[in-house]
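Hey, quick one: can you model this chain's 3D structure?
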Amino acid sequence: MSSSRSTMSDSIREMYLFGVVDYCMFGGMLILSAACGIYFGFFKRTTASNSTSHPEDEQDHLPAAVASTKKPSNSFGSATIDEYLLGSRRLKAFPVAMSLLAGYISGVTILGTPAEIYNFGTQYWLIVVPILLMGVAVCSVYLPVFCSLKLNSSYEYLELRFNPYVRSMASVMFVINQMLFLPMVIYVPALAFNQVTGFNLYVIGAIVCVVCIFYTLLGGIKAVVFTDAWQVVVMFVSVVVVVIIGTIALGGPGVIWDRSIDGGRIDFFNFNPSMYERQTFWAVLIGGFFYWTSYNAVNQTMVQRYMSLPNLRTAKISIYMFVIGTAIFVSVCCYTGLLLYGKYFDCDPASVELVNTSDQLFPHYVMESVGHLRGMPGLFIAGVFGAALSSLSVILNTTSGVLLEDILKGLFRVTPSSFVANVVVRGSVVVLGLAAMGCLFIVDKLDGILIVSATLAAIGNGTTGGIFTLGMLVPWSNTKGALFGGIAGALLSGWISLGSQFASAAGRVVPHKLPVSVDGCIAELITNTTNVNPVYPDESGVFPLYRLSYHWITPIGVTTVVIVGTIISFITGPRDLRQIDPELISPVIHRYLPRESFGYYGTANKNPPSFNAEMQAQTNVPVGSNIPNVKVDERKEHTTSK
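Sure thing. Here's the predicted structure for all 642 residues.
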């Protein structure tokens, strides 16, 4: 019987394979991505003098006579490191917003979120509320500090606020976190491609890496941002088209909703206070806010693109567009999970081994439901690959910058020449990409992409988010407080995360999925071993921290850093608030600082200090006051108000 089921499963898969049109759409996406690297690497470049003389204009807007005299002397890629990493700080709000969206909404979201809703219900859909709140928190608390300081790396702030050791700790943690996440980013689209074509997972993973390395290596942040902008369109269109066709085929949203209610998938208000349950109202709302804010407020992959914009106002506009777009896209992915259940409510593909993991559900659905439409599978896979390329290129570009600015310059105190800096940055892109390819076999052994990626990121996000929060919102915190708080947060969140993973791998902690059915499956797919009602182990003997929902890891990390850091700061001697540089403190705290402290405004910053109207709006110090060391940058005020 098992042999006949295997034959039937193989026959079903063979019915839905890629055609010529699908391969052309997929190939076109890869070619366009590579072309963006060539365009921004060779044809649309600026020089340092160009970026200084025309800070608000793109090169193609200059008069022909001027543009002809501004040819870059370097014939390979971006002309300067500033252009390569930050786009000379002249990018526009909309493409950066699309890049932020594309970089965060990776293939993990496209494949993992529908599977999460399918298996555990709609409680996770509430995540859109923390996403919206995160946008407000980032724009009001963290972003004004970075925009005022105009740093190349967010971790430079930690050296200005505390000391080089704190900066090194956070930057090393960031690099390790990104290296762990890189192979997962590649694995997701390779998994989808393997599901619909049978193509070798490792070969397609290598192709994705090579294309991404190519255009990131040549074009830098400009190629990354503008490639992301069109990739996010492909990504969104591919998912929405599949969802619309699938909804119509099932008889409309009403049918999907009714089946989801009958299957127990609709639950938005699970107020269970237990921190052990995977998805509850409190876990999603509180844990989601801490996770999204910690990542988007201080993570260098996000801050680097904030810093590529000319001023605070433009950065805020970009973030609000990103937040709204993310909430919409996540909602579409959550609805897709209900669509999957509406389709498979009486024949679960995982139970009859039509898919190997829950993360293959969506690709399987695409091939089964719209696979007969020429180009649709290709459009879907192009969208998934576009999401992965976006995330991968951002990580490669950002991590290479951190290795230069925070590791080489910050940790080892090396000041490389322009040529050496270029070699380090571009060499890092290549090495990181190749290392990610080599780690694919590890990810292939893991199940549950969403929880694994969120857990790994939570270790770094909780700790670094806590350190930045301590620095910006607790003005009396000192270096010892930051060091001890950071170490405590990393150890505790890492202990919980790794303990949870080991307990899960040993089968002692198993997520309790909602019931599924195989009553509607054809007889050939069902055997005596088909089990739709698994027996879950007794978890009462498992150490309590290992049973926590993954949503709580980031809040625990952040609060541990802030509480321990504050206590240690008071024990070892808090900072004298009268002598602290207010530019290092969030504007929401400025009104509580002593007036004497504003005499030190800008003294910690390596760039010329400026106390402009954007910062003054949230403080109690008037622009133009006669306080020493405070200089009003009238040009910046004019630029901002435009």
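One thing worth noting: The chain has a mean pLDDT of 83.
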